[in-house]
Amino acid sequence: MLRYILPFILFVVIGVFLYKGLSLDPRDLGSTLIDKPAPSFSLPLMDDMTQTVSEKDFLGKVSILNVWASWCGTCRYEHPLLMQLQQQGYIIYGLVYKDKLADAQQVLARTGNPYEANAFDENGTVGIDWGVTGTPETFVIDKQGIVRMKHVGQITVDVWRNKFLPLINKLDS
Questions:
Q1: Which candidate, 165, 151, 169, places its Cα nearest to that of 68?
Q2: Which whole number is the average pLDDT over 54-79?
Q3: How many CB atoms lie within 10 A of CB 165?
Q4: Residue 44 β-bridge partners
Q5: Is pLDDT above 80 for 30?
Q6: ∠ CA 31-96-119, rounded to 5°
Q7: 120-141: per-residue pLDDT in tens?
Q8: Average pLDDT for residues 56-77, to the nearest whole number?
Q9: Residue among 110, 108, 131 nearest 120 (CA)
Q10: How many C-beta atoms lie closer than 10 Å to residue 39's C-beta?
Q11: Maximum alpha-carbon separation in the chain
Q12: Distances (CA, A) of 119 to 10, 47, 116
């Protein structure tokens, strides 16, 4: 009798693990930064390499940090929405990730610049500190400089309405 029950129990246990694993979002990698201060950094501004942008620029306002690159196809799809958000008054910082300066400048000259400032991370070292795995990735930072959310992938209207906007409204109140 035990010979028949043991394989059945093993089958059920494996089935539960598979069911649980298949219900997870494979793009949600999580982040060790959530509810912690933004990593310290200082990078040159893409538009003026003599000026810098740092985590201190996030203080006093709810900020969005969008990691992008000129070679990123998905970044092109989210760019029009970022332009709309900037026009609506949302503060968006850019982190130009592993890119060539001229290529990134050319993209913004052609498509518009939704960013308050663009930090130029040519080698990706600051991106590593932020836990960036690719582009686009977007972070929400509160008024105290604490990272409150990380989103991997394109920001769509639905993602903005359902994920970003409720959090930003809560942090801004």
A1: 151
A2: 97
A3: 13
A4: 52
A5: no
A6: 90
A7: 999 999 999 999 999 999 999 9
A8: 97
A9: 108
A10: 14
A11: 78
A12: 52, 9, 10
Q: Which residue has the tokens 């028949």?
A: 4
Is the predicted pLDDT of residue 11 greater than 80, yes or no? no
Query: Helix/strand/coil (H, E, C) string of the chain?
Result: CHHHHHHHHHHHHHHHHHHHHHCCCCCCCCCCCCCEECCCCEEEECCCCCCEEEHHHHCCCCEEEEEECCCCHHHHHHHHHHHHHHHCCCCEEEEEECCCHHHHHHHHHHHCCCCCEEEEECCCHHHHHHCCCCCCEEEEECCCCEEEEEEECCCCHHHHHHHHHHHHHHHHC
Measured CA to CA in angstroms, residue 94 lies from 11, 14, 21, 24 at distances of 49, 44, 34, 29
All domains in the chain, ordered by first residue: 27-172 (3.40.30.10)
Q: What is the residue whose two structure tokens read 């306002």?
A: 61
Residue with tokens 């060790």: 32
Q: What is the distance between the alpha carbons of residues 89 and 129, in angstroms, rounded to a whole number?
A: 28
- Tokens 């930064």 correspond to what residue? 33
